[in-house]
Amino acid sequence: MTQQPRTLAEKVWADHVVVSGGGTEPDLIYIDLHLVHEVTSPQAFEGLRLAGRAVRRPDLTIATEDHNVPTIDIDKPIADPVSRTQVETLRHNCAEFGIRLHPMGDIDQGIVHIIGPQLGLTQPGTTVVCGDSHTSTHGAFGALAMGIGTSEVEHVLATQTLPLRPFKTMAVTVEGEGGQLPAGVTAKDIILAVIAQIGTGGGQGYVIEYRGSVIEALSMEARMTICNMSIEAGARAGMVAPDATTYEYLRGRPHAPAGADWDAAVTYWDRLRTDPGAVYDAEVFLDASALTPFVTWGTNPGQGVPLGAAVPDPETITDEAARRAAEKALAYMDLRPGTPMREIAVDTVFVGSCTNGRIEDLRAVADVLRGRQVCEGVRMLVVPGSMRVRNQAEAEGLAEVFTAAGAEWRQPGCSMCLGMNPDQLAPGQRCASTSNRNFEGRQGKGGRTHLVSPVVAAATAVRGTLSAPADLN
Questions:
Q1: Model pTM greater than 0.90?
Q2: Is residue 2 predicted with pLDDT exceeding 80?
Q3: Closest Cα to residue 139, out of 218, 230, 52, 212?
Q4: CA distance 34 to 16
Q5: What angle do CA 465, 222, 247 make, to 5 degrees?
């Protein structure tokens, strides 16, 4: 019997079904990699303890400290009592249950979604879960990666499986002239434009596969940025088919296959790509040649416009719910309709997070800042996504560029992305941020967030208003 053509997501799913639900019940899916951090794991470990259960596959589980950690004075006790308790609890749980942990200061410590790929743990065709919504980042490697809740964290710890219902599939095809992005446009602009086009609920119930000549030309770091924010479109996961770029990134990493195992792995990985004739449940097309730098104006990632545009007028929005949401967002953001985006002044610029805290992002920021100064009255934080990224940035002289420009160079962590640590905005402060969410209070109670790319963040730090590098010439 000839098998029907299948998509990338369908192939990975099929290869991990332990027990089929027969279409009426969830399938039981095997999990290849479970990532753990200090925020969503304490209750899960306590559940195991109360039930007298062990961790089923500690060798497939890895933990790091990232969300609550300070990004300065990491050699001192954590000052915040809640953060200190969560970190100490993670350390105790990992020691008790035999799980590998990378604590603050460790060479492999960092944001969980940066260290997985960095160590070569994230591989094509695998299933990856973590108690964090931005686990979708790992889909850039052709992995089926998703965030899970605390009860699901416990289930995976105990069984190395997860009951899940199959998802629908969506193709987002990005094409452009010569397969290249216009000057000054980045992967962050692609995903912000996609979310603005389909809405924050447009991907609900779907696994999105990003395809097309522009996606194929992107680096792995850029692909991770795009997959990272799939969740902001409501999707369960985002994926990119593995190719030569993927293999080159993985080759030689600590946990990547080697020798004959590498050759066998690549043979399998090559077969994962979507078959010709496979049908997606939905398709979206984006013309990248028309893209310019993108920024958000509101309080969700879908409320964005090109940097050259103005704050929209809610009165022009025909959908009543969207109009009310826009009115509420503008009131919170303290913005007036018609204000050019380039005239919006900021107090703070944040570079970092699992979206844009990799070495490629820091190089791009340094290229803009080199020989320039952060605008007077603007605070700029540059926070590497991992200790290895930090060390590499210092070895390449990037850290010197940041500090010479007047930016603060920090230790690795989630930092100002979510305001669950000391790096927070004060009420009323406005931030240009390379992170993934601009919800009310996300970066601190009363803080106002504009999502931007790393190069727009750097240019904004120099001019003091939302800007692109071209504005500095």
A1: yes
A2: no
A3: 230
A4: 14
A5: 165
